[in-house]
User: Fold this.
Amino acid sequence: MAGILIALCIGLPWAGALLVWWIGNDNPRWQHSLAVGFSAAGGLAALALIGLRSQGAGLSLKVGGAFGDFSFVPDGLSVYLTAIATVIGSLAVIFSIDYMRGEEQLGRYYALVLFFIGSMAGLVLTNNLFLMFLFWEITALCSYGLISFHNDDPKAVAGGIKALIITQLGGIGLLVAAILSYSYLGSFDTNLLLQKAPELPANVLTILAFGCLAAAAAKSAQFPFQTWLPDAMEAPTPVSALIHAATMVNAGVYLLARFYPAFAAVPNWREAVMLVGMISALMAALMALAANDLKRVLAYSTVSQLGYMVYAVGAGGVLASQFHLLSHSIFKALLFLGAGAVIHAAGTRDMRQMGGLGSQMPFVRTVFVAGALALAGVPVLNGFWSKELVLEAGLSGGPVWVFGLMIFTAALTALYTFRMVWMVFFGENRGGLHAHEAGAAMKTALAPLALGALVSWLLAGPFSRLLAETLPHHSIHALPTGEILLEVIKAPATYIALAAVALGLAAWWWREKLRLFSEALSGILWVAAHSFGFEAINRGVVSVTNDAAEDLRGSQTGLLNWNVLAIIIALVLVLLLLALGA
Amino acid sequence: MDAKTALTLLLVIPLVASPVVYLIGRISFHQSRGQYIVARWFALAALASMWYPLVVTAKAVLADGGVDLHVGRILLRMDGVGLFLAVTVLMLSTLATLFSFNYVSGEEDEEKFYALLPVLTATMIGLGCTRDLFNLWVWFEAMAVSSYLLVAFYHHQRNSLEAAIKYLIQSAIGSLLVLLGISLVFLQTATLNLDEIRPLLAGSGIVSLAAGGLFVVGFGVKTALVPMHTWLPDAHSQAPSGISALLSGVVIEAGLVAMLRALGSLSEASPAWGALLLAFAALNMLYGNLMALRQTEVKRLLAYSSLAQMGYMLLGFGVALAYGIKDGAAGGFFHIFNHAVMKGLAFLAAGALLYALHLSRGSHRALVLDDLNGAARRYPVTAFALSVALLGLGGLPPLSGFMSKWQIFLAGAEVRSTPLLWLVIFAALNSVLSLGYYAPIVNRIFRNEPSERVLKGNPIAPLMALPLLLLTLATVALGVWPSLLTWLTEPAAQGLLAAFGLR
Amino acid sequence: MIFSLPNIAIVVVLGLFGVGLYGVLISRNLIKVVVGLQIAVKGALVAFVLAGRLSSQVDVGQSLALTVIVADTIVAVVALALAVQVRRKFGTLDIPSLTSLRR
Assistant:
């Protein structure tokens, strides 16, 4: 039964992708309905799968050899991430009905989105490292295809290729981890790796651990690979919500959480993970403060929040990181889709042009503010509880100075969130924009997400049981919701964080009076607006490679005599090498 | 039909069909208003009729490990490696022939084209199953000559002539070096049978080392090892697209198989061959990718990418020969097949566009990247096929190129050596670099605004699109279910390792 | 013995090879390049005959040499046919002017 549901979670969206693509762009109505139908069916299958969670393989197809057996395990971590991927996926598809209406090449759009949803489910469900890498790359392929969906726009193309190449660079880490683990264990089974990790040679385990960290950092847009995510904002907004906020970017955190028990003992690994998370969170928060593009602010905030999750894993708080992942998926999808409604109505992404849009689109304003409060960590929304859990785990499992910086980041988060909400929905309408309220399909997608942001924290207890029951290596304890919440309320970290959030809010409220202070900050913000030099490094690498390639082209002289000379030189060199070797 | 007859037929059918096709073409030409309809269908029928003996041979090979055929002093033995090559070659040449029906229709000397295709196919099958070192050279040389003529098919075009003459001179030097190597081996051992040579040359020092070096460089010219590759971008881009597909997809790989066969006889003499292949692997990957990165002509870009892809195959075989890892050889063969499918598809799809946009309008200009803009709007099937081929070559799942690269990388890790792990990482980095030129092409294809040329282009005939569809299907199928081809690659890997005395 | 038959033959082989390859390497004329190739192949012929003689399989050596002659003649014919076409289309056999395919 679980096997069938797993097959449905992956297969339904994939079948939908084929159908939507097959039916052609002449039938946009059918394309919309089919996409919604198949993605919603996949979501239902995933929700049903939660009830059938287990530690054993639910589905296993015999392949063997260099590819292992294609097997899938519906354990707690997998099923809840599958549910997130498929449910938020179907909400994003529903949102697209309004957002993508009248677009060209709709078939390609829906096919890629559905293909992505199925692959994301596969990525989290499989327990075969090879398949995990395969799905890892498929999600990168879909992300690339969707970022550059508007192929006529050179910025979209550049963003897509950048995302593809950077995530692939990191992906080499996962590749190396997978092939090494096969080489030493003779199997791709992730559970076997978790079980046998202490028996591996120390240097091999170190390569595995840091390989996975590199892969995770690239996928989750963490330091030093963070640059691709802001440029990925050229994608249609539902895609940004789905892939670049709620699901694919979580794959990195998932990878770290999945293998935490195997790698925790590797010297310096946990510290490295915490540092990566902290640096990403802090840098991205500063960049969000300096940005004026609505979607880029949200992208930076995604990097920053993912930094929190990575930090939590490094500190040993797997449950906290996954709970924050759940909250973040909900409120960030909400924020992105809300932003999509605003952009769709206003026709621009520049927040300097906006202002006062709240009165024109009250529904969007309401849900957006709910999401923003959750992001800022204001009680009692879901972001508050999960962020406090993360900080608490950080304080108990990591150095205090890192914790201090994360608290500072929490203040920055509140600051940039209020700045964003204010610039979009309140104050005066600077650009004189005429926005209209979101359509029915958009509202249908936004409402459940807003509800989730308000109440998903009530699931803390069942969530901890879900993870505790089926992850034997992770030593997670199941607690009732009340106890978890009480723990948060009692913890001193909570009040420090709340004070920081209040400070951030206050800083925005009295921004006029703090002008002197903000001028002192302007230098940092200038650096932040220039992405701390990482864009320059990226450009440098690209141009050096291109120049080298261009110069090398001169070696194809087209002159026959030179070609013959090359053959003879090669012969001499080969003979020399062989003679020296003998 | 017994296996010996089947193997005989496999070689005889195309060699007999070739002159018949030519004669039919000459005779029927006047009756069919400037068309070579009979000749082209006869050529296709000849190739198609080879499938039955191939299946019979394959069954015997897989059951008994080999089919022997004595021709005078020469032993032809179809084993795993030969069977692999035969299947790959026949698959691609059948489809390329079908593709060429429209493509070369109405060109001067069309009948010669169809007469040469079966010869090219036969020589590669023969090359795969011979057990005689000199006979190997004969097949190799025959393959080379037929490919010279096919590259020079547009002999009224200056560029094609230039490419063909350069190809000929360089390839001839390569085969000259091979000849010298063979004479050295013959001098030492007084025999030409590959299996007899091996024990005789055990530890025989400098002469067999020199022979091996000559084989590596000599066959390396045909295999396009950098820096003996300079003919390749010219020849592959100037040949008719069906021939480009064959050259890139199977001819250079046949050169590689010939090199491996010859080196197998020297495997007792030195353990260095695997390491040498690994060095060329690194060189080929980096050079091929960098050269393709800034290329603007589509077929030339694909030609350079063949250099890089050859690097992956060399990596697999190098690991197999240096460390006796079977996954390396199996991955190498798997990649040869996938490359034949993907690069064949890429050249055929680019060729279909070249035909629709330029050739059918009487222009011999090269297809450049800008011509591809928005091609998906007008040529959905061809454009999709080309995208699948390019992304597959870039090693993205769920396409077959991902699977074979994976198997090769896995073999590299199985060695458990740090330098080799670095080489695998280097190869993976190259794979990422290659996306730097594959991905932008796909983006171009799916633009909304078509280029001028696409707007003015002619339609693509269904007969031309059929091979594209089949190859696309194969690329996806092997990318979803990689073990579909294990029955072919595993015996080939076993055969290769056995020839090197490794297992 | 320095002037034994094998030694002389080896010198001849290497000499023919060297002269041929040198010709291919430095000639600017397509015909001369083909001639250079032919000279080098003659070296291989001598090598086969020599190898046959030394391994007391004269007949094998000779038959190999004959096969090489046939194959090589075909190559030479194709090469010269192409050279004729090159002369017609380009108006020259000068190799440096055959460089429109570059980069």
